[in-house]
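User: Study the shape:
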Amino acid sequence: NARDAMLDGGRLTLTTRNVVFGVREAVAVGAGYAGDYVEIEIADTGTGIPQAILERIFDPFFSTKEVGKGTGLGLSMVFGFVKQSGGGITVASDEGRGTICTLYLPM
């Protein structure tokens, strides 16, 4: 998705770190419980996701790509994997500036 959002080039950054969540923090990121997590942040400098569709990006078969260019299953599969693992995922996007997806997986 980042590649498609950066057709003229850009920067893709992957960052990892260990985090410890209390109950409040775990709930805020959609994680299953308080405790130790690995944070994986994927940031791009692409076109960003319009706010009007941001809440739908994890819906199965939802895609903004042309017919034949994508199934709309990639992000829904990531969401399912993260949730089945007891983790959480957040997405922040700014049109014209890029997107940051952050995954939280239990250690």
The CA atoms of residues 18 and 38 lie 5 Å apart. Residues 2-106 form a domain with the Heat Shock Protein 90 fold (CATH 3.30.565.10). The mean pLDDT is 89.
